[in-house]
Amino acid sequence: MQSAPRIAVDAMGGDFGPSAIVPGAVSAARERPIRLVLVGDTPRIEAELKKLDVSGLSVEVVHSTQVAEMTDKPADVVRRKKDASIVVAARLVKDGRADGVVSAGHTGATMACGMFILGRQPGVDRPALASIMPTEKRPMVLTDVGANLEAKSFHLFQFAVMADAMCRAVLGYEKPRLGLLSIGEEEGKGNSQVKEAFQMLRASSLNFLGNVEGRDIFRGETDIVVCDGFVGNVCLKLSEGLASSLGRMLKRELTTGLLSKLGTVLSMGALKRFKRLVDVSEYGGGLLLGLSAITIVCHGSSNPRSIHTAMRMAADYVSNKANETIAQTLAQNSDLTRFSRAKAANGNGA
Amino acid sequence: MQSAPRIAVDAMGGDFGPSAIVPGAVSAARERPIRLVLVGDTPRIEAELKKLDVSGLSVEVVHSTQVAEMTDKPADVVRRKKDASIVVAARLVKDGRADGVVSAGHTGATMACGMFILGRQPGVDRPALASIMPTEKRPMVLTDVGANLEAKSFHLFQFAVMADAMCRAVLGYEKPRLGLLSIGEEEGKGNSQVKEAFQMLRASSLNFLGNVEGRDIFRGETDIVVCDGFVGNVCLKLSEGLASSLGRMLKRELTTGLLSKLGTVLSMGALKRFKRLVDVSEYGGGLLLGLSAITIVCHGSSNPRSIHTAMRMAADYVSNKANETIAQTLAQNSDLTRFSRAKAANGNGA
């Protein structure tokens, strides 16, 4: 247990607060060795703990008196709400008392705490948000999904390096197959950033398959798809929205006519499994990569199951030393980005 | 019939050539007044016409001896294949012998013919490709879906103006509800181009609802969604890909277990209707907006039904004078783009 990863959990975050967060965290710690550091209002956290079986688990409660509210500006939380649960959680990591953070609270505040309290991992210019998505085959990683609305080619390259390490550590894939999102599969397709990133990725040690198009994402032939945060955020939300819309359209079609209705009742189990397959929320939250420690941002609506998944991902990320892999891969490929970084520093890079 | 729109059809384009194009064009002309100008190999076109009832229709056949092949570079087709069917079709429009072009051939060549032979409509800086997409409610227009991989704010504004006119003319919506694709609904969200375009659109005469996110596209609460061509192309292909993937996943789930199988048989009709609802190819092709005449680019795999739809759209676009609406709206709102155009001319515009 001494070596189990210590995850600081913002117990006050999310729509349901400690009543969803605490059970989710405890259930993850029952499944695998995780030392829990629960941050928030001690009486409320302890009330939740009393309802659960925590025998044999390592559970620390760290009291905090404030909460980041949805109306707070992210930077204000970091600067002024020094005792907000997410600020305290990030500081515990900074002080070496935890190895990673999980929060279902204010997304912007969590990201700001990561950026300003934890800070960037050496060698990374821009942290990126990664999301795990279902596909027809095994889950894949899409990044950036919103941390960087514009990205130079060497940023895209770094996103790929970080996603590769995360994919190995969290999903356990050996040589993740990497694709660069563009508007055609051929090498020359895309905007200038994509074309330049293509060259770097091809020359790198990563398992780069080439450009992929929007239509390929869900086929499951690539394990990582890299893009800038504007495109990635649109893709993520479009996928969620389209899956829900199709679900509603299917339901409407299936409830028209008696035979259809009977058919629907008979195929209910299959439809439920289908719904779970396409439910993006099954996959926990977004992983903020490139900070000195892993930070996972969960949906506000997270239930214990999503928190459980996020805790497991954070623990795997730490145990499998993903940040070390990132550092190694960046060092190994540092020559590749030198040119475009210099260009960008002179104000004319792609 | 004298006033019916004359549509030049590239009869040689697409995977099936005249055998799909000619019946599709004729069936559209049976449905509403369209004067057909079929361009290509006369004997093959006439062989197809013989199989069809063309009594009372206005059908002109214009012979051409060449075809744009998939391996041809678009610019080479315009410059060197002067007798390619798509080149001849575009030239007929240029010479005032037709009012619009429909082609299922080489997409790049069709776009190049539009740009270089037809030329831009006065006042439009960048033509844009628009696609009609299904939603939970009525169909909507997404633009740009690939003609401009990067777009300044005033380009985005012009895309909106063109889509508005097209939406009125082709879909018959009275005051199309317009959304700007971004990563959050609030006014300040997005990259610099989007933020600047937001201001112009809000001050314009268009029915602008504000920013929309990826998740909103298929809900059917907006009739037009505007974005740059990189994002739009990714969205279009992602939607097609996700709909197919979900269809396959659903089928796999439904064919597991005896009860499910029986259920599937009973709900087959509903599943078929569902498939049609989400089949993007039902909606004809992409409309290239902002040229001196409407140009419609159909999928290579177009069947007579898709060609029929494209012909109907081209005819409605012409009959309802969409290009005049674009010119009027641009004139009416010309002050709004002046500042960002000047900035871009100085090389520092968003």
UniProtKB/TrEMBL annotation, chains A, B:
Gene Ontology terms, MF aspect: phosphate:acyl-[acyl carrier protein] acyltransferase activity
Superkingdom of origin organism: Bacteria
Cellular location(s): Cytoplasm
Top-level enzyme category: transferase
Keyword Secreted: no
Catalytic activity from the UniProt record: a fatty acyl-[ACP] + phosphate = an acyl phosphate + holo-[ACP]
E.C. designation(s): 2.3.1.274
Principal cellular location given in the protein's record: cytoplasm
GO cellular component, one term: cytoplasm
Description of how the protein assembles with itself and partners: Homodimer. Probably interacts with PlsY.
HAMAP family documented for this protein: PlsX
UniProt record similarity statement: Belongs to the PlsX family.
Role played: Catalyzes the reversible formation of acyl-phosphate (acyl-PO(4)) from acyl-[acyl-carrier-protein] (acyl-ACP). This enzyme utilizes acyl-ACP as fatty acyl donor, but not acyl-CoA.
Protein name: Phosphate acyltransferase
Organism expressing this protein natively: Alkalidesulfovibrio alkalitolerans DSM 16529
Taxonomic classification: Bacteria, Pseudomonadati, Thermodesulfobacteriota, Desulfovibrionia, Desulfovibrionales
